[in-house]
Amino acid sequence: MGWVCLLLGLIGVLLPLLPTTPFIILAAYCFSRSSRRFHQMLVGHRLFGPIIRDWEAHGVIPLKVKWISSTMMLLMISYPVFFKPLHWGIDASMLGVAVIALVYIWSRPSRPRQDSNPSSKPELRPQADSADSA
């Protein structure tokens, strides 16, 4: 399954209608369950690695990725409106899928929360019981 997702993601680099990032993240998830070697290959990739690491560690989609994916989605669904006759069922379903995807993308944080950084967490010290202090 990881290879299928990776292949679909790579095809998505060439075809703007097919999303790349979700397939790459899904491939990384599949490889994390099946092949540590290929998971590390994706996490270490110069282009996809930071996106995968942010997603795995914090559930974050960087702002730049949000803008690029939103722009590409809107361009792809607007193309038929301007250059083809309208087919209400197909066009409405495309618009519905795009709206759901956009809502999901923009509902994710753009950067890690401050309290998710381990170095910023206050150190927990065991408290003495009242019996110990008496």
TrEMBL record:
Entry GO terms, CC: plasma membrane
Residue span of region Disordered: 110-134
UniProt membrane topology term: Multi-pass membrane protein
Alphabetically ordered keywords of this record: Cell inner membrane, Cell membrane, Membrane, Transmembrane, Transmembrane helix
InterPro entries: DUF454
Stretches assigned to coiled coil: none
Transmembrane segments: 6-31, 88-106
Location of the protein in the cell: Cell inner membrane
Protein name from the UniProt record: Inner membrane protein
Main location: membrane
